[in-house]
Write the structure tokens for this entry.
Amino acid sequence: MAKKPYLVGIVGASASGKTSFLRDLVARLPTSSCSVVSLDNYYHPIERQQRDANGWPNFDLPTALDRRRFHADLAILLRGESIVHAEYTFNHRDKPGELITIAPADVLILEGLFLFHDDAIRAALDLRVFIDADEEICRQRRLQRDQAERGYTLEHSAYCWEQHVLPAYRQYVLPYREEAHLVVANHTDYADGLDALSRRLQAILALGADV
């Protein structure tokens, strides 16, 4: 690619709807013009995670992520080269992650909980998007997802929410809402925000990624 990719960052609370929003956004964009990089695939293994006072691993800290590898992969994409890495499988330690190939594109969408907390990444983004949802709504979504998709007990999920997820959100994520170019409300649905962002990115692609 001759032009610098247009960098979009999407953040929000755990279970705020980032994944669903991103899926619907990408569906509205030309496949060959857009690539997605998720911070979820850059977690350190569980044995390297910091543990709380009760011995539970805390994945809801910026240090839970391999920031160096993320920066290195992003640099490769910005050079116009593809990257390959394994999909992170969360608590399924006996299930190897599938290899994911991410190609360079005119629009690179970066998604992840602590994306804006990284000063270098935040400064490099052309567009910062914050998915905003009520904390109690996120809590209910998170508890349901953890049991249905990750096999956690309700007790485990509730503990993690109160001790790890919510404090981390308030300290490392929520303060950056004011620095977002676009705040997408997702208390019930995100239709308006999705329309606004998809139109903007479609215009960027039509005019050229260096706008």
User: Anything to note?
Assistant: The domain at 6-206 is CATH 3.40.50.300 (Rossmann fold).
